[in-house]
Specification:
Keywords: WD repeat. This is DMXL2 protein. InterPro entries: DmX-like/RAVE_component, WD40/YVTN_repeat-like_dom_sf, WD40_repeat_dom_sf, WD40_rpt. One of its GO terms (cellular component) is RAVE complex. The protein has 185 residues and is mainly β. The chain contains no helices and 17 strands. The protein has a four-stranded antiparallel sheet with strand order 4-5-6-7, with no helix packed on it. It has a four-stranded antiparallel sheet with strand order 8-9-10-11, with no helix packed on it. A four-stranded antiparallel sheet has the order 12-13-14-15, with no helix packed on it. Strand 9 and strand 10 form a beta hairpin. It is globular and about 45 Å long. The relative contact order is 0.11. The model has no long low-confidence stretch (mean pLDDT 93).
């Protein structure tokens, strides 16, 4: 799966030189993040205008429409994570009201899909990592802060400054004992 500054999203197969599917054409908002769900049957694309779109991967048309597309953040959606069976999605980004980390239910109508919004990261959340064993979300912000959220209780557990500049990367070890952050500096 490839995404570009011009907003295009294409899917390729290792053994074929041509794209299999073009999910989005050039001329859309820049792609900020893309993932497959754990089952590999859906892919999601976040963009610079605050939208998250999700497609079924096994499409037979060359330019399929997303089965879900909604604006998660008013300025940009920088990252997202499929939670559990991918009916629950967490997003990070920047919104005018500082609700920069959100939980969404993809099985209800778009007007009711926001489950919870965390007010955090004054200038926006840049990255997000889901820890399934502990049911935690870890987010990094533009000012170097890390926030840890309990998604079952829907509350912030801990906040600390890890860097002097924006957090650009988060990684979690498979046993969920540690996580690592990387920053713009």
């Amino acid at each position: 799966l490839t995404g570009a500054q011009d907003g295009s999203v294409r899917m390729f197969e290792w053994t074929r030189p041509q794209q299999l599917v073009c999910f989005r054409q050039a001329g859309n908002a820049r792609v900020t993040r893309m993932y497959f769900n754990s089952q590999g049957n859906k892919c999601g694309v976040a963009d610079g205008e605050g939208f998250l779109s999700i497609w079924q991967v096994n499409q037979t048309t060359s330019n399929p429409k997303p089965y879900l597309s909604w604006q998660c953040h008013s300025k940009t959606t920088s990252d997202f994570a499929f939670i559990t069976s991918s009916s629950l999605v967490a997003t990070s980004g920047q919104s005018n009201d500082n609700r920069n980390v959100c939980l969404w239910d993809t099985l209800v109508s778009s007007g009711n899909s926001l489950i919870h919004a965390f007010t955090c990261h004054d200038h926006g959340a840049t990255v997000l990592q889901y820890a399934p064993k502990h049911q935690l979300l870890i987010s990094g912000g533009r000012k170097g802060y890390i926030c840890i959220f309990d998604i079952r209780q829907r509350q912030i557990l801990h906040t600390f400054q890890a860097h002097e500049s924006a957090v650009k990367a988060l990684a979690l070890d498979p046993s969920e004992d540690y996580f690592v952050t990387g920053s713009a500096e």
